[in-house]
Design goal:
Layout (H helix, E strand, L loop, with lengths): L2 H10 L1 H8 L11 E7 L2 E6 L2 E2 L1 H5 L4 H4 L3 E7 L4 E6 H17 L7 E5 L4 H12 L3 E4 L6 H11 L3 E5 L1 E4 L2 E4 L1 H10 L6 E5 L13 E3 H7 L10 E2 L5 E5 L7 E5 L2 H13 L8 E4 L6 H13 L3 E6 L9 H8 L2 E6 L1 H8 L4 H4 L8 E5 L5 H11 L3 E4 L10 E2 L16 E2 L5 E4 L14 E5 L10 E2 L3 H9 L8 E9 L5 E6 L3 E4 L2 E4 H9 L4 E11 L3 E10 L8 H18 L8 E5 L12 H8 L13 H12 L2
Helix pairs in contact: 1-2, 5-6, 5-9, 7-8, 10-11, 13-15, 19-20
The structure holds adenosine-5'-monophosphate-propyl ester.
The site of adenosine-5'-monophosphate-propyl ester (PRX) has 21 residues, from helix 11, strand 20, strand 26 and strand 27.
């Protein structure tokens, strides 16, 4: 089939199109209506249908592939490799589900998962969807203040965590951060379920903290059936950053998500049942949810869960896994490739990569040199794909499962089936139909199955943030700039808001600013994202001090900079730590007091800051220019 026709049908006859895709999963009860869009922008998919994510990911495969690999856990941090078949995964998920139930978790409750990349994290996620509870996974790299705000928003009955993670051979203790987060939060979870890896101290709070290994022992043979839920029943929430400091809980449904993932594995990621999928992401991010856990498993594939760095013990470690487990689809981020690029390319040639159909990359712009280097080194197709936490699966890519099409360097590809993607003028909302015109990448409602249902407990914020940012129209904004060429290929040109992308990690500059402002000597601060060769972007902070004498000498300034970075480390986590914190006496603002972030960013990147007629104090930008130039 021609991709163009496939896409056209998905937009013009969505009911027929998605009813066909819905056959890819199991339904306990068939749906009556494919899409109810009677209250835009809220879309309800497969209304009347009942299903279960965990059933589709695990139980339904028991008949045909009980003894085939399901979860392949590899840790180069603790030197452990453990393979769970579908039957073993089924058993472990039930043990975890029974344990959660024993701690009082019921359908509709939230379970916050704050864990390193260990099998129990996967068991916990699947156990939640098994019993109709919502998981809310918080990335293990986040620290107590980030975690506390997510605890308060999700209001979990139970938190599942572990003593520690490990990165580059260094133990990263979790329990202290978790205890501090619970101390800071107004909502207190009834129970905390702890997995002890024996890596770090794990002080237990009596009456609240429960050791998982002991509880698991009591439920070795407990059967926990899947709870059939409505297709529209929320399966999970996942927090992501936006323009304001408060993270948004992206809420996902059940049936639409399962169908979207199953279809994407077939049409985009070229995976088949019985094969192996390897995504190098983390379960704390959306790629981990969709393409470490649910997507591959729903498709009956084995999935590799990898704890460790791409270059430890050496740069061949990922490729040795591709060879060993005959990985057919691999998913990573450009940042990881840029890390590998600094190593000897011979590492890639050591292994037989012939099983690999393609390497898929997403999360940040894929620059041409990186794309070319990895394509040459691997000798396999490289496929860029563009999407967001909000959508849960690709918006733009090349759907080689439908029709082979060439990639273009710098472009993630064309609009994926189900997505009616438009470029709109930011101020008038008018559609830019001509080629190579820059506009906001927007999606006409309804969003296809699998995309966010709403912002957790905040429908109004969902509508206001995502659907009303472009004047005159109810249309979903991605908050990315883009252009489209004559052939329908899109090019993404960066965010329209204050979100930055550091090594594929999405961060809000406002959150970082709030954290830095909590330092007693900081009066005001501006954080911007600045282009970086390795990480794509890094955060750069410019602060105005209350007491400038504390930074009077270069040594004192450096000491204070270190102190401020420590504040960010402790509150948000090292992922959010700015590359530099520089001190200025005034920040560039407009006469009405708005920070000129774009001008700061331009100066940091040695670009023209543009129109500065509204600037209140031109010397403010000069100070930043001087700092950047090292004057
Ligand atoms: O700015 C876009 C960028 O990452 C943002 C979404 O990040 P996140 O919610 O973490 O989801 C990542 C899912 C892969 C987008 O708004 N982005 C993502 N993929 C690409 C990209 N920018 C350019 N090219 C991409 N392939």
């Amino acid at each position: 089939m021609r991709f163009q026709d496939f896409h056209r049908q998905s937009i013009e006859q969505p009911d027929i199109f998605w009813a066909e895709q819905a056959k890819l999963i199991d339904w306990e009860r068939p749906f009556d209506k494919v899409c109810d869009y009677s209250k835009p922008p809220f879309a309800n998919w497969f209304v009347g249908g009942r299903t279960n994510l965990c059933h589709n990911a695990v139980d339904r495969h028991l008949k045909a592939r009980a003894d085939q690999n399901a979860l392949i856990f590899v840790s180069t941090e603790v030197d452990r490799e453990q393979v769970y078949t579908f039957a073993q995964l089924h058993a472990e998920v039930q043990r975890m589900a029974a344990s959660l139930q024993a701690l009082g978790v019921k359908q509709g409750d939230r379970v916050l998962v704050y864990m390193p990349m260990i099998p129990e994290a996967a068991f916990a996620m699947l156990a939640c969807t098994r019993i109709g509870a919502l998981h809310s996974v918080v990335f293990g790299g986040f620290a107590s203040v980030s975690l506390a705000s997510r605890i308060d928003d999700a209001q979990p009955t139970v938190i599942v965590s572990a003593d520690a993670g490990s990165r580059g051979g260094k133990v990263v203790p979790y329990k202290g951060l978790l205890d501090e987060a619970i101390r800071l939060s107004s909502h207190k979870p009834a129970k905390v379920l702890m997995v002890n890896r024996g890596l770090a101290d794990m002080p237990m709070t009596p009456g609240r903290d429960v050791d998982y290994s002991a509880l698991r022992e009591q439920h070795l043979n407990t059967t926990v059936p899947c709870v059939w839920v409505d297709s529209t029943h929320p399966s999970y929430t996942l927090y992501t950053s936006g323009t304001t400091g408060k993270p948004k809980g992206v809420q996902r449904d059940t049936g639409g998500y399962a169908v979207a993932l199953a279809a994407s594995i077939k049409h985009i990621f070229l995976g088949k049942p019985g094969e192996t999928y390897f995504s190098t992401s983390d379960i704390g991010w959306v790629v981990g949810h969709s393409y470490i856990i649910y997507g591959p498993l729903i498709a009956g594939m084995a999935t590799i869960m990898y704890e460790g760095l791409p270059i430890r013990p050496d740069a061949a470690v990922w490729w040795s896994l591709v060879e060993k487990y005959k990985v057919t689809s691999m998913f990573s981020a450009p940042t990881a490739v840029r890390v590998l690029k600094k190593q000897d390319p011979a590492a890639l040639k050591k292994h037989d990569l012939s099983s690999l159909r393609a390497l898929f990359l997403a999360g940040e712009p894929l620059d041409e040199p990186t794309a070319k280097w990895i394509a040459d080194a691997l000798g396999r197709p490289i496929i860029d794909n563009y999407w967001q936490t909000e959508t849960g699966w690709p918006i733009l890519t090349i759907c080689n499962g439908i029709e082979q099409a060439p990639s273009k360097f710098g472009s993630p590809g064309k609009a994926v089936y189900g997505y009616d993607v438009k470029l709109l003028d930011e101020s008038t909302g008018e559609e830019l139909k001509g080629a190579n015109q820059k506009g906001v990448v927007a999606i006409e409602g309804p969003l296809p199955p699998g995309c966010m249902q709403t912002v957790w407990r905040d429908d109004e914020r969902f509508v206001k943030t995502y659907w009303k940012s472009i004047p005159g129209k109810l249309v979903y904004s991605t908050f990315d700039w883009g252009i489209r060429d004559d052939d329908g290929y899109f090019f993404i040109l960066g965010r329209t808001d204050d979100v930055i992308n550091v090594a594929g990690h999405r961060l809000g500059t406002r959150e970082i600013e709030e954290s830095i402002s909590s330092h007693p000597n900081v009066a005001e601060v501006a954080v911007v994202g600045v282009a970086d060769q390795l990480k794509g972007q890094v955060a750069m902070a410019f602060a105005v001090l209350k007491d400038t004498s504390k930074a009077a000498t270069p040594e004192a300034a450096l000491k204070l900079e270190g102190e401020i970075m420590k504040v960010v480390d402790e509150q948000l986590g090292a992922v959010a730590r700015p590359a530099r914190v520089r001190f200025v006496t005034v920040l560039p603002k407009t006469r009405s007091g708005k920070l000129l972030r774009r001008a700061i960013q331009a100066v940091c990147e040695a670009r023209d800051p543009g129109d500065l007629t509204t600037i209140e104090d031109p010397t403010a930008l000069q100070q930043i220019k001087d700092l950047v130039a090292g004057r």
